[in-house]
Amino acid sequence: MTAAVFFGCAFIAFGPALALYIFTIATEPLRVIFLIIGKASEGLKSINPDETAPSMRLLAYVSGLGFGIMSGVFAFVNTLSDSLGPGTVGIHGDSPQFFLNSAFMTLVIILLHVFWGIIFFDGCEKKKWSALLVVLLTHLLVSALTFISPHYGINLVSTYIIMVLMGIWAFFVAGGSCRSLKFCLLCQDKDFLLFNQRSR
Amino acid sequence: MIFPSRDFKVLSGFSSDLEARGVLCSPEPGTPQGRAMLTFMASDSEEEVCDERTSLMSAESPPPRCCQEARQGLEDGENAAQWRSQDSEEDLDDADRYVCSGVPGQPLGLEEELTLKYGAKHVIMLFVPVTLCMIVVVATIKSVRFYTEKNGQLPYGAGREQSLQPAISLSIYTPFTEDTPSVGQRLLNSVLNTLIMISVIVAMTIFLVVLYKYRCYKFIHGWLIMSSLMLLFLFTYIYLGEVLKTYNVAMDYPTLFLTVWNFGAVGMVCIHWKGPLVLQQAYLIMISALMALVFIKYLPEWSAWVILGAISVYDLVAVLCPKGPLRMLVETAQERNEPIFPALIYSSAMVWTVGMAKLDPSSQGALQLPYDPEMEDSYDSFGEPSYPEVFEPPLPGSPEGELEEEEERGVKLGLGDFIFYSVLVGKAAATGSGDWNTTLACFVAILIGLCLTLLLLAVFKKALPALPISITFGLIFYFSTDNLVRPFMDTLASHQLYI
């Protein structure tokens, strides 16, 4: 219950989300607005008949991130503020790793929301009802897994596995492919480099 | 108050000069925006009519020309803004501009698209200061106990006299106590307090509008200077004292005097005269936060919530009704081609004044009217309605050295709006169990309201009140989160259940 715990857990839980926000959203005002207004998706879809694919993906990503951040924040911020105050963790027999576990769980929930958002929007657009069903079921599964909360091992590991699977699925849904991944990692992606060049 | 300012101050010679360069153009008279703009222009020259489309075509010309023209003080802010945004944003994701423009089934409306994109930038330019003000207020509330203590528990020591003064003056406005045995009585008292407060505000606003109408600029000027003196010196001294007490830091009187003196003097200069824009913005945010803290401390609990609700209704009425005082103020200012007390309004733009050759001294005074922090009256009158002002950046080195009124480009929001937003979020942070979920929910609600207000503004293009939508959302979110969501989330978090 020290400042170290506070900052450590805060960055574990919200670091990646903050990084995603800073690098992909903060520079573009329209996306920030999407983040705040989140549910404008249907309305925006209706006024956008021509160019749908890229913008919908962007909207899906931003919505997912928005929902994820709100959900993570609401779940974790009170716990975080309690961690600054005096106290002993686990004095009544609970696990002493309460804060760490909550932080990791929050992180995985945020990332899962991002991936679910992308998959869900895509499923809605292409009318792939199976995708919607899988998203719903995995969400329920992840929540149900948290019911066995004292057994952190099973809880966290399986949730992270689900997150990785969802991440891979979202990557392919969003238009990525093994080839583009290879280009990206080897810094051979010309479009990306040119894009960065121009924006400077 | 958010307003679309354009060319209140451009002089005739200037505009004809611009026109000669083929730069001056206004949106087509058919558009509501064009109609509104045309009435404001002081120029006697014929406005060259060109709509956004043609201006966009000419924007393909090399950037230096655009920049130069812009620097020469374009009259039509929006075109310049679009040019600049065109230049800087070509490489952005094209998809973005397609997302929210146009009408279903019709081809992409360039005008709407650009309005939206331009509007989005302004929305962000307002999010940042509003967020900063709220952060300052919430941080102070959470750490400095003074601002959540009720009047009965004043701290001991030298601070007592100063702390008593605002309490006494504010209790004049809210004389009915809330320490009553029954709920009904308490509710009645808070409603009565609200009625008194609102009538004071209305009276002050009408007084101010009357003064403005009869051109008593010196009186207004003096009044505002007195108020900002009090805010910048007295309230800062109290605030600093409380913060030092909280963190148990000792500071001797000479250092304190030096600090407060410098802070206050630079603040007066920045707000009432000239100064770097960022510094002026920072000072306006700080005084809004100080004022909000005073409100949070000295208004009784239930009265504060009822007052927030009543103020938004008043704002709506005052700005939109034809005989509303604020609307009359705005219209009078427009008729006289004067800016509306710029110092009372947060502006996120660049402001230069190069020379004041042709402006009459009275409008000069109006241009630099300082912020009036005096309790509830003035900023409510100026603070309430909001328009995003869209000016042009002026030209620092103009060859003529004439007018050069600055035209700022950016958005303006009245300080009263900042104050009441911060009061709402601060009260959400102060009351109850100190729950962060409630505070965050109110914060998001206010930002959503602000976004929607700016959207409406882009649609209607006239003065709009900034308070009603945000405060309504804020109140709804506060009460529902505090009573419904908080117990639920508390249980979930304590058992580490995630939904």
Please give a structural write-up:
The complex is a heterodimer of chains A (200) and B (499). Chain A has helices spanning 3-25, 29-37, 41-46, 53-84, 98-125, 129-145, 152-173, 178-185, 190-199. With 200 residues, chain A is an all-alpha fold. Chain A has one domain (2-196). Chain B is mainly α and 499 residues long. Chain B has helices at 12-20, 32-40, 52-58, 63-71, 77-89, 94-99, 110-143, 159-173, 183-213, 217-247, 253-272, 277-298, 301-320, 325-335, 361-367, 377-383, 415-430, 436-460, 467-494, and strands at residues 345-347, 385-386, 412-414, 464-465. Chain B has a two-stranded antiparallel sheet. In chain B, strands 2-4 form a two-stranded antiparallel sheet. The relative contact order of chain B is 0.14.
In short:
Chain A: Potential subunit of the gamma-secretase complex, an endoprotease complex that catalyzes the intramembrane cleavage of integral proteins such as Notch receptors. Chain A is 78% helix and 0% strand.
